[in-house]
Amino acid sequence: MTLQRKTLTAALASCLAFAVGSTHAQTPEPEATLGGELRVGIARDVVNMVPWVAQGASVYIVQQNVYDNLITYDDEGNLTGELAESWEIVDPTTYVLKLRQNVVFHDGDTFDAEDAKVSLDRMRDPTGTSALASQLSSIAEVNVIDPYTIELKLSEPNVVVLSILASSTAHVLSKEWLETEPDLTTEMNGTGPFMFIEFEPGVRTVLERNPNYWKEGLPYLDRLVAIPYADDSSRINALRSGEVNFIEYVPYVEFDSLRQDDQFDLQSGVGPYNILVLNINEEPFDDIRVRQALNYLIDREQLIMLVSEGEGTPMQVGLLQPDDPFYSADLETWTFDPDRALELIQEAGYDGFSDIGFTLTSSTVTIHQDMATVVQALLQGFGMNVSIEIVDVPTLLEYRGNGAYVAMMDGYSNAYQDPDAYSRYFETGGAGYANAVGLSDEILDEMIDRGRAATDVAERKEAYHEFEERLIELAPWYFGFFRPQGEAMIQDVNGYRRWPSGLGGQSTSRMEYVWIQQ
């Protein structure tokens, strides 16, 4: 490892702060009988299989167990190789990745550098649908050096490029398979631990064990079956009745009972966040002062109590949690202050709260509807006229891309562990929000660029501090709260490895380690 690579890797590592959750036994006992079927109750249907698109946590159970990335995270949340066995940072604009050999796709094609290049080219294509195109725009060229080596030539330094390649949508697909023009909405062909077998919309998605998986001896399971239960009660009842043996999105009201029941294991952490995305082109949120007022008017503590049984952390700055090394405690702004909110809307030309009305869009997902309903009640308590529009999940995903809302309840988690993850939402062209509503701000863009280019941690902190100062001023969202998220399983399910902190919501992507005591 070169000195420069050590320096940059240390800079990346210093960006990470995690709280490790509990785990079951990590490897099966020698006498254990392996195999079996894990039936997973998911919070919503998978919708489709399109890679490189952010489709939410319920899709991780499928996509990230079929596809691999070049880079991933270890149990502690540090970057580690997946299909890239190792890498070298030759200079600030040249990265060389050595690829893993003897890896085959599910259709039998051998993985090599051409597959990595084509996948990276798709990810960074600004004319496509990739959620990573903006973040990877600094990659000017992807060069094949030999069958198992690629070179990334950057147009400018970008110290987070490796973290981006570990993000939840950075999947590697087969060049030869893509040339056959498969229907990526219904077909999958990866190198991951499980092979896509069946998708019955609204009923189930079936994955089966990949017998040629490159991690020797894995996966332990024969089959994964993901079954959608949009209703929280139905999902928890399916677990308790034995209809499924694992569920995601455990309802908050069930946390304590599951913790106290020795038939089940609950693993949880605080990482994802609930927010309202605001359309800066539509009244009343085309006025910065109204957007700021909303952030003062909705009481986060009350919101957490009513929506998540008191479990959660208020967002007082932006998307970084208080234990993050880049967190700016001196910028804590968003507190409950209705007097300040009234001043702001009066400055915007309204006589009072009753002069403001808007439609709040929410998906059918319970954690979205619950928060939308509470927000509506809290704002109506001040006289605002707030109506709720309920849409299905495919429409939610569509609205995320086209901005067809005035205000929309949504939930996210950062795609990778670095403050550069802000770029997905607030950098010009960011696929997660900015592109949909046309947000483009010179200061935000400048600070994102500066943070990416700096190898000095102090300089990076300064850049993101200035970024957050500007974000608070613009207030494009109502920054709600970091919510708890948990998975529950029967005690016979072992080996589930929950990633720490903000990565926790992606933990169902690692089902190769799960085994069932039989």
Automatic annotation (TrEMBL):
It comes from the Bacteria. It comes from Pelagibacterium nitratireducens. This is ABC transporter substrate-binding protein. InterPro entries: Peptide/Ni-bd, SBP_5, SBP_5_dom. It is found in: Periplasm. Residues 79-431 form the Solute-binding protein family domain. Residues 1-25 form the signal peptide. Its main location: periplasm.
